[in-house]
Each structure stands twice: as C-alpha cells, then as structure tokens.
Amino acid sequence: MTPLMIPPRARGIEILDNPAVSPEVMTRSMKDVVRANILFGGRRAALAELLPAVRELPGSGDILDIGTGLGDIPIAARESARSMGIALRTIGIDTSPPLVALQQGSMDAVVRGDALALPFADNSVDIAMASQVLHHFETDQAIEFVREMNRVARKRVVISDLRRSRIAAAGLWLGSFPLGFHPISRHDGVVSVMRGFLPAELAEIVEAATGQRPEVHRRLGFRLTTSWNPKP
C-alpha cells in the first residue's frame, strides 16, 4: 500500500477517553463499538488469535480482558471455550465506572483499574488480552502497557488492534451513517484507526517491552493481532 494511504501515526483525541462523558453516551457508544467489532472484523480477529491459546488450557483457565468495555470478546471466547469442553473464567478491567457497573453479572469478575498498573499479581492469570486498547497510548506508554500484560500472564499474552490506513478510516466514516452510529462513535472510530499500527510498529513495541519479537498477523478488516508466551 502506498505511503499516501498509510499516514504517520496520529496523536488524536478520543472523546470517550474523557471521564466526564456521561454514562448514557458512554454506554451507547460502546454498543456501537460492539457492532463494529462484529461487522468490521474486530471480534473475529481477536478470537482467531485467542482461541488457539484457549485450546491449550487443561480443561479450565482464566482470561483477563484489559479495557473490556462491554465484554463482548471475552464473553464470546467463553462460549467458544465451552464448546471445546473448557471452562474459561472471564475477568474484565476497565477505567470507566459505568462500564464496570454494567458488566457485573455478565462476566465472572469485573474491576476498575489502570492498564498501566494492573491490580493483579505476577503470573496471576492464564491469558492476558487487550483488544483495541494499545492504540490509545503513545509509544512509551504502549511499551509500559505491554510490559504489564506480560507481567500478569502465565501462559499467553494476546493483542488485537487496528491497522492504520486512510482507506479503513474512510470506510468506517462512511459506513457509520447507514449503521446509525452515534456521532462520538464516528469521531472516535476514525481517530482510533489513525492511531493504529503497522505490523512492524506493533512488533517493535512488544520487543521493546519483553525482549521478544513476535509474529504479527494481518487480519481482515484492517486488523492486526499478535501473541506470545510471557517470560520474565
């Protein structure tokens, strides 16, 4: 793809990152995120990277989903795990009090906390996962975030995020109108895409955080995924 279609990574400001956003708007926009995950490949990409690690669990295990939002991906993973005969315990963490409150009862546990200082002990969960969270951070903080994921995971770390492209940003913008997305969802979706990564960029962040350079997969819908076995 030409450099014209792949601009430099933008800083941008996502409106939903502002804690002053009302609970009603937060919930409505996050429902749009769930729909976008289904329609544009986010859920499919995340599960494609995650489920091989779930299959390796010895009958049961747990997953920590960081920046869980409405929990659609860990809940879908739990259903897939059940079909494999695996009991997958779902733990979510998010910074938004309304989202944490909303998820009580739909996941096994949901807590409020900081992704850069996860309130979990070293090697305390089988799988640590983040879907469409990493792009919220500038490079230094992204490295710190990946380091935290690597710290708490026993068996696997999984990241799914957006591949930066003007084509993807334009497609999301245009598609958001017939889909009836909230204006904030439309704005934040485009900003998110332009804050996304190229494969080499994502690999470099993981390598800087862990000392391991993982394989990064391009997925349909302008998605990138990667995973690795955590090491100290």
Helix content: 40-55%
Report the CATH C-level class.
Alpha Beta
The biggest beta sheet is recorded as: 7 strands, mixed
Radius of gyration: 17 Å
N to C succession of SSEs: HHEHEHEEHEHHHEE
Our count of helices gives 8
Strand arrangement in the largest pleated sheet: 3-2-1-4-5-7-6
Shape: globular
How many E strands?
7
Report the portion of residues in β strands.
15-25%
pLDDT < 50 runs, ≥5 residues: none
- The rounded distance between the terminal residues' Cα atoms is 37 Å
CATH architecture title: 3-Layer(aba) Sandwich
If you had to describe this structure to a student in words, what would you say it looks like?
With 232 residues, this protein is an alpha/beta fold. It is built from eight helices and seven strands. Helix 3 links the parallel strand 1 and strand 2. The protein is 43% helix and 20% strand. The mean pLDDT is 94. It is globular, with a radius of gyration of 17 Å. It has helices at residues 23-40, 42-55, 72-83, 97-103, 139-152, 166-176, 183-194, 199-210; strands at residues 60-66, 87-94, 109-112, 125-131, 153-162, 216-219, 223-228. The chain has one domain (3-228): Vaccinia Virus protein VP39 (Rossmann fold). It starts with 22 loop residues before the first helix and ends with a strand. It has a seven-stranded mixed sheet with strand order 3-2-1-4-5-7-6, with helices on both faces.
In short:
The chain has 232 residues and is α/β, with parallel strands linked by helices.
